[in-house]
Sequence to fold (146 residues):
Amino acid sequence: MKLQSFFPYQLAVLAETVSRAMAQVYAERFELSRDEWRVVAALYENGAMKTTDVIAQTTLDKMQVSRAVARLERDGLLQRSEDSADRRNKVLRLLPAGQAQVARIVPLVQARVEFLLEALDADERRSLEALFGKLQSRATQLIRQG
Fold:
């Protein structure tokens, strides 16, 4: 087996390269880590969320989210409050400064995504989306099978 042609490795390399290209925006210009970016992006999209829901949506683990939330709270970008339905859980919401920061970042990362996708025509884009869905489904099936 050649590592360079091993499918999971190819995906990992692509994901890392794309992630680094996006990080040039939110890390270098706005001083957010990848984990912090994922948390604020999820909150920007969904509004207030339970910590457990942020964990599920971002694929970050509990400790990664906890550290990111602590830094974002310290920097005045989000607020953490007790969940009235379950006091063990916290509800997270972006503060106005956090919303404004994400609103500045989104068009910049969207422009980078568009630049990447310009390499594909409309049919290829639709196919890529369908292929991602199929592969995600199969990978999830493998995990369930053990």
